[in-house]
């Protein structure tokens, strides 16, 4: 494997730079700068987390026997290498920008035949949402332990909550999501065939149920807030960050 197959992409470093700039701006007292900072933290940080989510899948697959992920550039954290950058980066960013549920990515192509057994296949699927959960934990811990300006704390808290939402959503056993991917290797042949047919439309039905069926959205977000509390998140700071991010509401 060449060094270029693992060298961190300049695009990813640029996304980190955008997020860092947001952290600086969010520390100012002036409201316009604080708002701009939170917007950059959330959009830049969410793009970074999408790359890390897919990297989690790819590095676990690589260690589990799939060497093709390196040749395809998935280990470089470069979103341009993804199978569908629009669906995996642009569309999720758009949904976050309008205040919707953070969409899961579907960006890396894994050669499941090269993986070392069903347990490895499950671990590859779980690696993505686990990455989101770890990021949420790290961000929430940083806010709790490090002294920082209120705007920065609010922006990082909202970004942490988005990571938790992504974890809770992705871990659901619905075809097309990572939770189902972890179960799929253990299912019967007919069940896997049904899941394959349902994969393109099942997540859309799930979003319609969450947003359209009374009582489902409160239950979903109640679970997300429960997990957020478990990782040490501050719900009030998260709501403040959401308010700054969605300044037009």
TrEMBL record:
GO terms for biological process: proteolysis. Coiled coil: none annotated. It comes from the Bacteria. It is a multi-pass membrane protein. Keywords: Cell membrane, Hydrolase, Membrane, Metal-binding, Metalloprotease, Protease, Transmembrane, Transmembrane helix, Zinc. The keyword Metal-binding applies. It is found in: Cell membrane. Its main location: membrane. Its cofactor is Zn(2+). The keyword DNA-binding does not apply. PROSITE patterns: PROKAR_LIPOPROTEIN. The chain crosses the membrane at residues 12-28, 35-55, 86-110, 122-146, 158-183, 204-228. GO terms for molecular function: peptidase activity. Belongs to the peptidase M50B family. This is Site-2 protease family protein. The lineage of its organism: Bacteria, Bacillati, Actinomycetota, Actinomycetes, Pseudonocardiales.
């Amino acid at each position: 494997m060449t060094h270029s197959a693992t060298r961190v992409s300049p695009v990813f470093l640029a996304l980190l730079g955008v997020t860092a700039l947001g952290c600086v701006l969010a520390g100012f007292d002036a409201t316009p700068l604080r708002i701009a900072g939170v917007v950059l933290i959330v959009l830049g940080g969410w793009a970074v987390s999408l790359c890390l989510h897919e990297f989690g899948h790819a590095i676990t697959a690589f260690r589990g026997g799939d060497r093709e992920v390196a040749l395809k550039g998935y280990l470089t954290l470069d979103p341009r290498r993804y199978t569908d950058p629009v669906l995996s980066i642009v569309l999720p960013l758009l949904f976050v920008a309008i205040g919707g549920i953070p969409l899961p990515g579907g960006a890396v192509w894994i050669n499941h035949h090269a993986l070392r057994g069903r347990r490895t296949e499950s671990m590859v699927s779980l690696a993505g949402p686990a990455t989101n959960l770890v990021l949420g934990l790290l961000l929430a811990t940083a806010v709790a332990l490090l002294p920082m300006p209120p705007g920065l704390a609010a922006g990082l808290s909202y970004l942490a909550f988005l990571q938790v939402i992504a974890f809770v959503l992705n871990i659901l056993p619905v075809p097309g999501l990572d939770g189902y991917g972890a179960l799929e290797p253990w299912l019967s042949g007919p069940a896997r065939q049904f899941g394959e047919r349902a994969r393109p439309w099942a997540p859309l039905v799930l979003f319609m149920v969450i947003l359209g069926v009374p009582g489902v959205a409160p239950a979903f977000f109640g679970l997300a807030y429960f997990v957020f509390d478990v990782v040490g998140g501050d719900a009030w700071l998260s709501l403040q960050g959401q308010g700054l991010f969605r300044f037009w509401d």
